[in-house]
Design goal:
An eight-stranded mixed β-sheet has the order 4-3-2-5-1-6-8-7. The protein is of the alpha/beta class. Strand 7 and strand 8 form a beta hairpin. The protein has a domain of 79 residues: Dihydrofolate Reductase, subunit A.
Length: 182
Amino acid sequence: MRRIINSTYITLDGVIANPQTWPSGRVSDEAGVTIQTELIQSCDALLMGRRTYEVFSAAWPSRSGDPISDRINSMTKYAVSSTLKTATWNNTSIISGDPIDRIKRLKQQPGKDIVQYGFGQLSFALIRHGLIDELRLWVHPFVLGRGGPEGLLYRDAPTTMFNFVGSRSLKNGDVILTYQAA
């Protein structure tokens, strides 16, 4: 069975929203690029909520020439939304209504793993139904100090246990914490 791997950027104060607007200028780390490349190459589908779809579909199609951009643009993509009617990003299907049964079927289809970026309503629905198999938190070493309640990782949800399976420290200070569903 395919796994769903959620990969999410988070700040020390718990902000997950709009990482594209976070402070830049930090030292980049090729190890982080390698980890992202390995993840995207191990997956053949991308699962997104509406907000992530809107951000990604505005940015990724104009990028090419590197393994991450080329892979993400060519792979099958699923956008979960009750408001989107059409998808402009190639290879994207919209899942409307209750996505849980459709995602359960996707996991049972043959293929590689499924990557999900971001952590919003869709992620919490997947957790409630036991559909996230691995969680990778990319902890960024700064307090953003803005974002409001909707920008934080926290949401009311059932208690869900994960097992720690590893961590990786990058030269830029990011730490990747990896957990698997218990």
